[in-house]
């Protein structure tokens, strides 16, 4: 099978043996796979949980396709099922999927659309419901809402009963599109008045919950936009992995600040996250009520162009590789 690996001279497509499914695994013929920011980190030698740039290890962590073979003990899937999942080795013609962490692809949804969903859905449900403890009727701020997971976060917040959803983006064109994905109010976090706008929208209280993809030196304004005894769940650090942190502000507002990385979770914890997302959002997924826009589709052989587009950060939504 063809597989995209990080070779001695950078990413390249090579031929590898088709893997065999073990117990509770299925073999999936991949039709589409999508890029994530972590793929760029891995290309630069970093690790992402169990994923790394090992020789002859296919890259990628999100795919959609068709089940073609069952391993021992598989009960919930059959050959021919259309499935999507997050998992290692996605950038290949075949991938192994674990029985408990796959989602059925809704009828009428393309493989290209399906591959954009799993990472965003499970990340945002975990951030909002489990770590964020979102309650019906509360307010949510998605910092960095024009990322793929940010767009999903606004939709999931609405599905979970949020009364007010605020999204931020520093890009005017992207900010104008946030309302299409659930934002009741779209703000520019570089605007000196953005915190006041949040306070105005929440009767001076601030939001109950922040899902933060930005961090860096924006964190203090983020805390000012959060209500007393509110919660901040950090997902990304687009504005920097370090910065000035006002500990007194954090203390006086009695804020709970939560880190929510998947990279330090064990397999059982990840299964629990995915099962929780499927249970809470399964009907919304089936109804195609959750979506991430497909920014661009590239043929598998044109992977270099896809990676370059992601590196330039000009995309809105997900960049997809079409394998079949």
TrEMBL record:
Molecular function in Gene Ontology: NADPH binding; oxidoreductase activity, acting on NAD(P)H
SMART domains: PKS_ER (SM00829)
Boundaries of every Enoyl reductase (ER) domain copy: 7-321
Domain of life of the native organism: Bacteria
InterPro entries: ADH-like_C, ADH-like_N, ER, GroES-like_sf, NAD(P)-bd_dom_sf
Protein's UniProt keywords contain GTP-binding: no
Keywords: NADP, Oxidoreductase
UniProt-listed SUPFAM superfamilies: GroES-like, NAD(P)-binding Rossmann-fold domains
Pfam families to which the protein is assigned, alphabetical: ADH_N, ADH_zinc_N
Protein's UniProt name: Quinone oxidoreductase
Organism ancestry: Bacteria, Pseudomonadati, Pseudomonadota, Gammaproteobacteria, Pseudomonadales
């Amino acid at each position: 099978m063809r597989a995209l690996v990080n070779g001695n001279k950078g990413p390249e497509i090579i031929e590898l043996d088709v893997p065999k499914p073990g117990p509770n695994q299925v073999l999936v013929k991949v039709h589409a796979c999508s890029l994530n920011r972590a793929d760029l980190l891995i290309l630069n030698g970093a690790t992402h949980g169990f994923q790394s740039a090992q020789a002859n290890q296919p890259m990628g962590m999100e795919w959609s396709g068709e089940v073609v073979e069952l391993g021992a003990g598989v009960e919930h899937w059959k050959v021919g099922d259309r499935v999507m999942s997050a998992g290692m080795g996605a950038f290949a013609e075949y991938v192994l999927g674990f029985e408990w962490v796959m989602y059925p692809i809704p009828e009428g949804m393309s493989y290209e659309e399906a591959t954009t969903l799993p990472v965003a859905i499970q990340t945002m449900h975990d951030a909002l419901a489990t770590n964020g403890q979102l309650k019906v009727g509360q307010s949510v701020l998605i910092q960095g809402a024009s990322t793929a997971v940010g767009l999903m976060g606004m939709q999931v917040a609405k599905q979970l009963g949020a009364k007010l959803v605020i999204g931020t983006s520093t890009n005017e064109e992207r900010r104008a599109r946030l309302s299409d994905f659930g934002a009741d109010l779209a703000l520019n976090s570089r605007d000196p008045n953005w915190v006041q706008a949040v306070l105005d929208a929440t009767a001076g209280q601030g939001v109950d919950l922040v899902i933060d993809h930005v961090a860096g030196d924006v964190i203090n304004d983020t805390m000012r936009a959060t209500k007393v005894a509110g919660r901040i769940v950090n997902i990304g650090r687009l504005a920097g992995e370090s910065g000035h942190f006002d500990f007194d502000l954090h203390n006086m507002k009695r804020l709970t600040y939560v880190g929510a990385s998947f990279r330090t979770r064990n397999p059982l914890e990840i299964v629990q996250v995915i099962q929780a997302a499927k249970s809470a959002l399964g009907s919304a997924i089936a109804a195609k009520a959750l979506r991430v826009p497909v920014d661009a589709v590239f043929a598998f052989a044109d992977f270099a162009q896809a990676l370059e587009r992601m590196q330039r950060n000009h995309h809105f939504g997900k960049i997809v590789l079409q394998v079949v």
